[in-house]
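Hi U.,

Before I forget, here's the chain from the pilot set. I'm dumping it here mostly so it's searchable later in email.
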Amino acid sequence: MVLPIIAYGDPILKKRALEIEKNYPDLQKLIADMFETLENAIGVGLAAPQIGLPIRLFVVDASPFEDEEPELKNFKKVFINAEIIEENGKEWLFNEGCLSFPGIREDVYRKPEITIRYFDENFVEHVDKIKGYAARVIQHENDHINGVVFIDKINSLKKQLIRRRLNNILAGNVDVKYKTKFVLSKRKI
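Structure:
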């Protein structure tokens, strides 16, 4: 089932999510729904807070980057209770977007290599070293479960330059091709 994606302005996007246990209700269905939602929105990552659940779960499908990195052809993974334990390399700039910020893309610096500890969909623990685009997507989604959004990583001048677009999201005045839930706030930033 395609779920609505929470847009910028909802407080859940700024809260640290809670760990879950193996017996979390309907976990496999939730994971399947998240992948279906991600595919419908033509995204590469989706975190549970983006669908209104304050839990430490995200899914990644980095296969759209296979032209640049062929090893990502079938890179679809589930990350439960993830923790990035190390980031390495020289930061590199990439123009990121986010399904919770429709129509906004900004340059963000991230490290090219990570070591991450997480549980998969079967609650098998992994510690993986991941690099390149997959590492970037994972860092972006891991930020979501820690209450950090990608615009938190840009400087204040850039935030001022996108203020009008952020206010349009708050008011629901954006054209979105996927199911979205807006806060519809009259407050402005």
